[in-house]
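Deliverable D2.4 — example input (structure tokens):
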């Protein structure tokens, strides 16, 4: 199968081979498949839908519009492919198109075209249905895109909700860790307070011991050893106090670091909340845009439904106009034949007129040529009469008679001898050249020199010499 099906494939189901040939010629720009049995055509529709290359229009040939076989075939076609447009082609004459509604539940995708029909009828009806089929596919594609956009939007929302839940859990864990560290610091502070109390108590005991030492010198010696022991113990306790103070300092430093980390984490959470607010605002804008597109798509769907209803309403009118168009086409063909015959007769008359005009122009050219030659000969005769005397005059007169004879015959004798000087008799003129169109408009100086006939310029030169 070719890629032309993407722009509308056509299926012809008919047992008449001539119907297949007519549709192929009328719709040559489409991808057309043929089936000669209804079952075969239904199988081809099932296969086309499975290959995702559905048919746009199906021609279904039946004996009558109310044929049960044709109605069952159309119902099965619509069960397999609800979008396919059907052109029912009954062979019976005088069938009522309205009777089709009695056998089919839905006739909005059905057009009746009686056989025999012409190529122009098939082209107009099928082209209109293919355009409607393509429009339906475009609207369905838009609906699918809207559904995909809704699914993607839901997925984005779920993903963001999960991310927020993870962030909330991490924040709760950090708060619990801070609470634990705070508890440890409080406990260590309490231990330090206890150690300070012990140190104070022992200091008081030492003071009492020193008082007793002053009161009893004798007891001092006995108490010296005890005092040293107590001093050592005090030293050990002082070391412990110093160690405890260092621990307290380290705990305080850790507490300060924890507070800094907590402040940094809080700032990061604020920044994330701001980003989340921006993303939420963008999401709301996109959602509003999708809602507007959905409203536009619903409006276009309503327009499509109205177009389908209008198509179903005008289908009978289209059928009637198709019949009227067929009658008008026959009348136009008859008038065209009459016009063609009259055009041929007119062309023959025009050719005859052109031939007559051509002969008339040739005759005018010959007359003009003869007039130019007569003028030239008259000038030559006048010159001869004014020249010479005696015998030369007689010879010139004879020569002039010879020239006049050559003009009358239009074929003067050839081979005349050339004169030796100006006083010698002039030779007989050569045959005249064929006159060319436009020579009558030239001046005497521009005309070509003919043999034996001087031009006006030559006559002026000879007269000046004499």
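Example output (designed residues):
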């Amino acid at each position: 199968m070719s890629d032309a099906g993407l722009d509308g494939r056509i299926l012809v189901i008919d047992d008449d081979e001539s119907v297949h040939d007519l549709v192929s010629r009328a719709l040559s720009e489409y991808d057309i498949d043929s089936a000669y049995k209804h079952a075969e055509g239904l199988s081809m529709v099932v296969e086309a839908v499975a290959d995702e290359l559905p048919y746009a229009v199906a021609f279904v040939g039946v004996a009558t519009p109310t044929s049960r076989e044709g109605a069952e075939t159309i119902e099965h076609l619509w069960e397999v492919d609800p979008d396919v447009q059907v052109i029912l082609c009954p062979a019976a004459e005088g069938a009522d198109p309205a009777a089709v509604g009695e056998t089919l539940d839905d006739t909005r995708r059905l057009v009746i075209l009686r056989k025999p029909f012409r190529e122009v009828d098939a082209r107009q009806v099928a082209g209109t249905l293919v355009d409607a089929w393509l429009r339906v596919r475009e609207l369905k594609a838009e609906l699918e895109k809207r559904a995909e956009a809704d699914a993607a939007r839901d997925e984005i929302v779920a993903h963001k909700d999960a991310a927020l839940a993870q962030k909330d859990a991490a924040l709760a864990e950090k708060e619990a860790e801070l609470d634990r560290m705070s508890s440890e610091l409080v406990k260590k502070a309490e231990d330090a307070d206890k150690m300070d109390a012990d140190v104070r108590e022992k200091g008081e005991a030492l003071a009492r011991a020193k008082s007793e030492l002053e009161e009893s010198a004798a007891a001092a010696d006995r108490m010296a050893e005890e005092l040293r022991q107590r001093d050592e113990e005090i030293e050990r306790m002082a070391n412990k106090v110093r160690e405890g103070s260092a621990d307290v300092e380290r705990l305080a430093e850790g507490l300060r670091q924890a507070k800094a980390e907590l402040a940094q984490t809080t700032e990061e959470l604020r920044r994330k909340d701001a980003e989340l607010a921006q993303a939420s605002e963008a999401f709301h804008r996109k959602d509003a845009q999708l809602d507007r597109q959905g409203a536009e798509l619903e409006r276009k769907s309503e327009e499509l439904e109205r177009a389908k209803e209008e198509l179903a309403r005008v289908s009978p009118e289209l059928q009637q106009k198709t019949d009227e168009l067929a009658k008008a086409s026959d009348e136009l063909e008859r008038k065209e034949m009459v016009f063609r015959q009259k055009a041929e007769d007119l062309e023959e008359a025009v050719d005859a007129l052109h031939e007559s005009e051509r002969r008339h122009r040739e005759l005018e050219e010959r007359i003009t040529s003869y007039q130019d030659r007569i003028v030239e000969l008259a000038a030559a005769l006048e010159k001869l009469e004014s020249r010479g005397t005696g015998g030369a005059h007689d010879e010139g007169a004879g020569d002039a008679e010879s020239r006049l004879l050559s003009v009358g015959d239009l074929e003067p004798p050839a081979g005349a001898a050339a004169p030796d000087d100006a006083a010698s008799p002039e030779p007989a003129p050569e045959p005249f050249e064929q006159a060319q169109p436009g020579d009558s408009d030239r001046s005497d100086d521009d005309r070509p020199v003919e043999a034996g006939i001087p031009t006006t310029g030559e006559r002026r030169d000879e007269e000046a010499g004499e």
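The first strand starts at residue 9 and ends at 13.
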